[in-house]
Every structure is written in C-alpha cells, then in structure tokens.
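Me: I'm a chemist; would you kindly supply a protein sequence with its structure tokens?

Assistant:
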Amino acid sequence: MNRRQYFMALLPSPEIQAEVTCLKQYCCDRYQSQAALRSPPHVTLYPPFWWPDAAIAELEQALETFCCQVAPVELIFDGFAAFAPRVIYIHVAPTPALKDLQAQLVKAVVKPLNLPPTQRHPFTPHMTIAFRDLTKEHFRHAWAEFQEKPFTARCWVSHLTLLVHNGRRWQIYREFLLRNLAPEAP
C-alpha cells in the first residue's frame, strides 16, 4: 500500500512568509541549519503522519467538513523562543481562538480518522526558523543572538493547509477555506 507523509498547518500571509524565509536562510548561512528551509513558514496544527494514497479523499472530505465550521483565525507573532538545545522559533500567541481551532481539529478530524497520536507535547504554537540540524554549539550562539531580538507581526489566516512530503521537502497539497458556516451560538 502506497502512503505519503502529511501534516496540517496554518500558513501566515505572504509578507510574513517572505520575512520568515529570510530568517531561515540567515540561520542556514550563519549557523548551518537548513532543515527549516524544507517547508514553507507555518504554524503546525497536527504534526507529520503517514496516510494511504487510496484514502486521501477521506482525509480531504474530513478537512473540508471541519473547515466549513471554523472561522478564520488571527496569528500574533511576538519575539523569539526556543526548545533547547535544538530549536529556535518565532513565538505565536496561544490565543483562545487558535487553541480552540487546534483542539477542534483533533476532535473532529484526527480522532475520527484514527490518525496516529504523534503529539508528544502539549500544543505550543510556534514558527520554526532553525531546528533538527542545528548543533548544540550553534544553538548557543544563535539563541544568544535571537533571544533579545524583536519580531512582531500579525495576520488573519483564512485557510487550513495540508502539506505533503515529496521525498525532499514539504509542499502544499491543498488549502481548505475556513468558512464558519456553522450557525451562530445564541
């Protein structure tokens, strides 16, 4: 059975993506960390999982149904943070709307489709600029540079994005419009 690896994320505005891609490239050039360049800038809602090609329509339908009931969400970026000793990222405010979106995705899509439980940690919204191939030595230097550096931005995101791994990098497979067609609560 043929399977591919996917993950679900929110992609910020093109302007923020361009700025973050420059930061990723800087980390590659200065600290030899290129792994973050293998995906577009994003906030992961559900981490990578394997899914059979024969069942992709089922996954797409579940995401389409879910996204019809979810409103666009604002992403608020504020400074840098780290998961020592390997990851440096842009902090994303864990707003109630963002946390609720992620929790509802798990409830409405992940659990019904029996996706593998890949969440090893609680949901911590972030946008990675350097990870995995960042050595501990380079992490110390990079973190010393980024920990006090300012970064502020915000944008509204109107799509949930399903990304697929093509064997070398992550690419957009499909975007699902967040439509909020659910009736208003009384």
Notes: The CA atoms of residues 11 and 42 lie 5 Å apart. Residues 3-177 form a domain with the Cyclic Phosphodiesterase; Chain: A, fold (CATH 3.90.1140.10).
